[in-house]
Amino acid sequence: QVQLVESGGGLREPGESLTLSCAASGSVFLILFMGWYRQAPGKERELVATITSGGITNYAESVKGRFTISRDNAKNTVYLQMNSLKPEDTDVYYCNAELLLTRQAPAPIGVWGQGTQVTVSS
Q1: Does the CA dihedral 73-78-79-85 come out positive or negative?
Q2: Using an 8 Å Cβ cutoff, are 16 and 100 in contact?
Q3: pLDDT tens for each residue of 89-111
Q4: Which of 94, 91, 98 is nearest to 118 (CA)?
């Protein structure tokens, strides 16, 4: 069974930086997409950034120029470098992966991490 284990959340003041990490554990044939989403209480989960196995990235408009997503395919790990943090970045951040468990898998499956809290406050 594949699990995503997130780390790196915490409390920062506005303007500071924080890096989140998410590692996939278990047997995986290929991870197609990895990404970060965030969710505030009572709101829908929203995309923050995604990255393909080839390194193609996509960002929400609200984080462009401040956040950088990257991945280490050998370690099945995705990172989110968050700079110039704002109070509105305060959320629970979730890691997501779309992956093939085996070469013969008929379709990719989606897996979510447990979430990590990021709080930006002075």
Answers
A1: positive
A2: no
A3: 999 999 999 999 999 999 999 99
A4: 91
Q: Is 75 helix (H, G, I), strand (E, B) or coil?
A: helix
Exposure of 115 in the CB half-sphere (CA atoms within 13 A): 13
Instruction: Reduce the DSSP state of residue 63 to 3 states and report it.
Output: helix
Q: Are 56 and 49 in contact (CB under 8 A)?
A: no
* pLDDT bucket at 1, cuts 50 / 70 / 90: confident
Work out the average pLDDT over 58-77.
Answer: 96
Closest CA to 67 of 56, 81, 77, 55: 81
H or E segment at 27? none
Side-chain-side CA neighbours of 35 within 13 Å: the count stands at 20
- The backbone torsions φ and ψ at residue 61, rounded to the nearest 5 degrees and listed phi first, read -60, -35
Range list of β-strands (E), the chain: 3-7, 10-12, 18-25, 30-39, 46-52, 57-59, 67-72, 77-82, 91-100, 109-112, 116-120
